[in-house]
Please model this.
Amino acid sequence: MRMPNIGLQLYTVRDVLKDDFAGTLRKVAKIGYAGIEGGGTGPMNKDDYLNFMREIGLIPISSGAGVDGLEKKGDEIMKAASELGVKYMMVSSGCKSAQEYMDLAVRLNACGKTANKYGIAFQYHNHAHEFQKFDGKSGFDILVDGTDPALVKFQVDAGWVNWAGENPSATLRRLKGRIVTIHVKDHTKDPKDFTEVGTGELPLAEVVAAAQEIGVQWMFVEQDRWKIPSIESAEISFKNLKKAVG
Model:
C-alpha cells in the first residue's frame, strides 16, 4: 500500500507568505511538509526559486489556475509550471446549473489535452456546491461522467465533500484511477468554521485509509481561516495527518 506524501496548499499561510516569502517556506519545510501547492515564486526569479527550494528540501509539486486563463494562455501557463517541476495542476469553478456543468466538462477536456503535452496531470478541485443535484444528478457526477479519464483527474477536497453531507472516503474509492492528489481540510460542526486537520468533523482515519488504498500520491493540507497563527495551524495539521498516515 502506497504511503502518500504530505504537502501544504500555501493558501493556508497566505497571510505570512506575502510578508516573508522565503522565511515562511523555510518554516513550512521545517515542520516536515514534503511539497507545496501554489504560492508562485514570490519575489524570486525562476532559477533563484528552484535553487532555494532545493536548499530547503521543499518540492513545488502542484499549482492552480483558472479555466478562462488556461483557455487563453494554456501552453504558456503549463510550460512555465513544468519548468518549475510542477506535476499537478488544478482548477475549480462556480457552476450553477446542469448545463453549465456539461459545458465545463467539455472545457476541462480541452485543458487536459494541453496539460498532457507538458507531462502535467490536470485535475478538477471540488468545493461543496458541486454536490447540488439537478434532476437527481449532482454537478460533480456530471463532471465525472462528462470528462475523459485520460485527460481530467479529480482533486477531491475531503473537507468540502464532508461538509456537503457526502462520504469522503466513499467518494475517493469511487474515483480510483482518477485521483492523484487530494485536499485534507477539517471543519467544526459549523461547516464554515474551519479548524486544524484532526480536530474537527472530518473522518480523518477513513479518508487516509481510502487515500492509501487507491494510491493517492499527495495529500495537501488546506485551511481557509484560522483562530491561531496560520503557521501554527499548519504545524498542528501536519502532525495530526502524519500520525494518521502512520
Notes: The domain at 5-245 is CATH 3.20.20.150 (TIM Barrel). Residues 98-117 form the longest helix (20 residues).
